[in-house]
Structure formats: structure tokens, C-alpha cells
């Protein structure tokens, strides 16, 4: 049997007294229910031994069934990395790819218990490639165990994970210096790593740090203190986990109840269903609904099992209020005396998880609590260098990068700073096209900007301006590759409309870059900003009652969708000039494709920058088959059918 530090598997680490021996299974369950729960994660660089450490904890706590132990022994001989000894990592790494490569890829959650406490542990990946998985696992934890290989010391990934742990509001950190057996249990090596990490953590702002030298493979200082490191006088890892006080119980915070569903089974009942994420509530409490600001009091607290007089954080309930108030999903019922902040512009730390970079100005879906809003990253203030904590300038965020950003939403949201309430201060960023989660953020504060600016009521509006001109204001948006013929067709269209007495204006991509957008290049980030600006200009012109013809490559679906959504449904017409790139390149009126192929022109659409084909264009013109005059006739026919002209 494998050794665990000083002795064989300890018999004192039972999860609970055997029910049969105790004679009362109900008492056992009651005893388990009274234990506190600690949620923690293990993280660190590759091959630091995270999975092995969790496996050792499970093993030493005697929480492995006999059939699991038999399987572990068999798997250790077949695919283990410990020379035939029990490979504890196999207890946690369950994916086939994880076992084949000997790495953790996805977050693995395990539940275990000791006589003093219950635990949920998230084993998170060490590879930089899977940092986003690590951030996901850390988001719900109260403590982080950051492993460092005693042979390698503090690495970049150690610092990166520490930054994310700090940003996610985890105040308690255990630095587990693992594989001490590989450095002959040397005190000097442990002390050197300890001092280096404490210096970094102090600059980062992590206050509660406990440093423990361990050998997860052999069990030294994992469940029991080992005599092999008699120079260490602190607790074992398990002893620390059993006794650490995470503090600031969420039930002691202000009431926050995000509404998930308006429960109205009949005309006699209206309740608001959800889960209390912080604080307490009782019948008769005065509350405020945000962001509307309406006041009321709690009349009833309803559950499936009956009504309650009070409820606390973690309880799923339906609140019935004394007053009829317009409340919908995403609103927050809060304590009247401790209200959340309300803002439509905020500052936040963002961990980027998308394979495609984050571009300021690009529209995303953002979920904060139960509220979905449309929003953009209006500016990236700085990126964080995880090696030295310096603030670096940048235009966008790449995969696994961390940045401090300003965000703008299409409507106000209710929130708390993340450091005060993780449940109402965190959010996710979702790509509007793929519906993939591409970022996670921690709100810092609301931006007190433009609070004295309101829409000015005007007597002359878009309808009256367009009526005076005898037309319907609209935006006709041409998109296509360079050389597709879109500018030629757009120019012919404006001439035909002008001859018909229509009031028009054409916005051409090249022309606009001589003035309004002359400061922009051709990176993806600049292209996004290019389209954002021109969309705002086009919207103003439509508001003036004009027919606006826009001719831009506009290569990204997200920005074309953003443009469409800024107009009324009947005002926007997308025209895709579908010309094969071979035809465009053969024309090459400006010699741009030739320069791009020779490497003289970077980020050129169709060569080294993508063009995302339109999926829902109202008009598709075959630029390689039809002449510009034929295309114009097809387009005019569509405009007449729609009533635009």
C-alpha cells in the first residue's frame, strides 16, 4: 500500500461514522448537514500536480470505494505516470484526452467531506490554452490552492492564475509548493519560492496567503503533517482547509433578488420567482425594485412546500409584493436601505475567453445576473501584464488576456461592485453570432458620464422631413469585396435616384477615410470602429429624411448586424455585391490585390483578413455575371416593391 508521509492510509479520515455502526442513518445525515461547506479550486502551471493533490486528498480521507480503488490500481499500471504506484491524478482526470496526454483540459468538480467540513473542489487546467476554463472554475470558489512545482518555482502561468483569482474576488490563497520530494525536502528551496510569491502577491493585493510545502505523490503535508519536513511548523493542507474562516457570509450582505420569472398562473396571483443571491428577506420588509426605483413591501414568501416567514441567500422562492408593480425578468428586488448601483456605462476588469479577439465598438450580448442587455466595450483602458503587473496599452484583447475596460449598455442595469457582491457584480460576454461565451467580467464602478444629457424633444422629426422630400428615409447598405463593383453600382443608384428627384447622399468607404476616419487603419479593431462611426453618421442622415447609400466592404457580420439594428426594420436594406474573388482580383482597379499578395499591404480583406459572407441580405447582386446597369434595374425593382421609392 502506498505511503502517505509518516504512515499508511490513516484510519481517522472517515467522511462520517458508518451508519450501520452508529445505528441511525438519520443522525449521520443530520450531522453532515450541520457541517460548513468550503468551495475551493486548485490551479497552477502545467504538471504542477493539481489532479494528483485532489486524488491524494480523496484517498487519504478514505473516500474511494473498493471498486474505484481496484480500477485506479489497474489504470495506474496501464497508463499511470508513477512507475506502477497509484497515480492519484487518474481519480480526477476523467476525459480520454486528459488521460492520454496526462493533462487537465476541462474543470473537474469533486465533492468530499472530513469530520469538520464539507468540500467542493474544482480541479482546473494549467495550460495557458485553457485559462478560460480555469476562470470559469474559480468564479464560484471561496479559496484557491495555487500549486508551484518546487523544481520550477513561480512561472508566468502561476502569476496569471493569481491575477485571475484576485480579480474574481477570492481573498484566501494557499500556496502549495508541491513535489518537495524532488528537491530533497529542502527548506531553502521552499523559502525562496515563498518569498518570491509573497512579493508578487503583495503587489497584486492578495492579503490572506498560507504557504505549505507538500508532496502530493507521497502525501507529505496533505492530510497529515510529515516528519520529512520537520522544519515546517504549520498545518497540513487538509487541516488548513478544515479551519480557514472565509468570512463575510453572503447572507449578511444586503438583499439582492434577481427576478428570473414572473409567476402569474391566474388573475388572482402575481409573484416574482428567483433565487436570493445575497441577504435575507422576511414578510413585511420594505423593498425597492431596480432599475425602476419603485417601492413596495413583501406580502408573502411562497415556495413549493408552502409559505415562509423569512428566506435567505440560496433559497429559491417566489416573492409576492403588496403593490402592483411592473416588474420583469432581469429586474432586481433589493433592500430599500441598501440599494444597488444603476448605470448604463461601467468600468470593469475583463478576462477574454474568445478565440477571436475582443474589438472595442463591436456589439455583444452581456448577461449580468438575470438581465440580458446589448452592449459594447467602448474602450480598452489598459491590459494587465501578468509577469510584472504593469499596465500596457492595447487596442484589443486576445484569448486569455486580462484588461480594464469601459463598457456601454443599451439600457441601465442594477449591479454592485464585484468586490462587494460577486453575484451581482459579475457578468459574461456572449458573441451575438455564435452565442458562445467569449468573456467574463468583474464590475468595478459605474461611469458618471452624460448624466445631464437627455434626448431633446423636437417638433420636426424624421417623418416630417422625409414627407417634405416626398420619399421614405432609408439606408441602402452595400457590402462586398474590394473590386466587387459595389461603389460603381452605388454611384449609379444615386444618379438614378437624383434624376428621379430624390434627396440622397452617398457614403463611400474610401472617401470617408480622407476625413472622419482618417485616423483608422485596417486592423480588425480599426475596421470595427470604422463601421461604428459610419453607422452613426448614416443614422443621423436617415433622421434628416435622406436616402443614404453606404458603400463599405464591412467584412464582419457582427458590425453589419449592429448597423441594421440601429435603424427601424423598414429603413435598412442590405445589398450584397457577390463577386468571386478571382474576378475582383482580375479587375484590381487600384492594384491592391497585387500589393497584398506581395506582402506590401497587410490586413487586406480576402487575402489575409476574412470576409464573412452575408446571411440575410435583402438583395444579392451577381457582380461577376451582371453588368452594373443590369444590377441597378434589379435593385430599383426591389426598392419600388418595398415602397422606398
Short recap of the structure:
This protein is α/β, with parallel strands linked by helices and 645 residues long. It has four domains: 19-243, 3-Layer(aba) Sandwich (Rossmann fold); 250-335, Translation factors (Elongation Factor Tu (Ef-tu), domain 3); 341-446, Translation factors (Elongation Factor Tu (Ef-tu), domain 3), CATH 2.40.30; 462-642, Rossmann fold (3-Layer(aba) Sandwich), CATH 3.40.50.
Radius of gyration (Å): 31 Å
Might you state the CATH topology name of the largest domain? Rossmann fold
Q: Determine the structural class based on helices, strands and strand pairing.
A: alpha/beta
CATH class call of the largest domain: Alpha Beta
CATH superfamily of the largest domain: P-loop containing nucleotide triphosphate hydrolases
Spatial separation of the terminal alpha carbons: 86 Å
Kindly state the number of beta strands: 28
Structure overview:
By secondary structure, the protein is of the alpha/beta class. The chain folds into four domains: 19-243, P-loop containing nucleotide triphosphate hydrolases (Rossmann fold, 3-Layer(aba) Sandwich); 250-335, Elongation Factor Tu (Ef-tu), domain 3 (Beta Barrel); 341-446, Beta Barrel (Elongation Factor Tu (Ef-tu), domain 3), CATH 2.40.30; 462-642, Rossmann fold (3-Layer(aba) Sandwich), CATH 3.40.50.300. It has 18 helices and 28 strands. The strands form five sheets. Strands 7, 8, 9, 11, 12, 13, 15 and 16 form an eight-stranded antiparallel β-sheet that branches. It has a six-stranded mixed β-sheet with strand order 2-3-1-4-5-6, with helices on both faces. The model is unreliable at 1-23 and 93-105 (pLDDT under 50).
